[in-house]
Amino acid sequence: MKWLVSLVGAGLVMLTLRDLFHTLWHPTRHGGLSRLVMTALWRFARRLRGRRRVVGLVGPLAMVTVVGMWTSTVVLGWAVVYWPHMPGAFAFSPGSEAAQAPALLDSLYLSLVTVATLGLGDIAPGDAWLRMVSPLEALVGFALLTATVSWVLEIFPALTRRRVLAVRLALLRDADPAPRQIDCTAGALLLDSLATDVARVRIDFTQYAEAYYFHDGEDHSSLAAMVGYAATLARRGQAARRPEVCLAGEVLAGALEDLATILDQRFLHTGGTAADVFAAYAADHGRSLAQP
User: Fold this and answer.
1) pTM of the model
2) Domain 2-147 - what CATH class?
């Protein structure tokens, strides 16, 4: 029975590590816990008054919540591993009153101390297998801290790329280049660079799906609001007479179609055209598509 309880605790730890791996390092980045938490918080925020202020906190709050749940589950899982063997399989420092506390409380305390790599030493594993298992929890705690830092460092550059593209589109919309200004070598280079930026954002939504739940602020820095103007520029490029401009317009249109496919498959599920998806994307972020 003791070993069965310990196996349940080990299972909790393994489930957490699996979710962490799929959220941060798996090529598809399909993390179960993180996506569920972020989707739930996003939908809840959309129903509240003062929506923009609340939605702006969803991304950071969801990341903190996910990391907290990972940490809590790891601590609880390892405590369940220790619990059936407490206090007999552990050594207590002289004068310590820990052995008089409930076994579950001691197990939680030991698990917290170990995962935080504090190593206070007032409770130490006595059995050989526990002396091997306990340092593994410290390694998991260190890996969890490292993963959290790397997650933050990965998300915010992806948000920057998305917002830079939105600001570029906003500036272009304000300049409102005429078709003849697009139909030149500079126009082809412009459309090609926009297609590259759109492709980067498409990859970001694949690799860092959590970035979808971050609010972009004002309309001019919101891709949800400005992406429609990119489609307008693509159409102008496709209608141009110069072959290089026409090709660049086709490439931009293809990049936008690919972006719409990813948004629809992963977040919106409209089953509609690219225009329908971008309209749903804008609405989901509390925006309306920018008009030329």
Assistant:
1) 0.81
2) mainly alpha
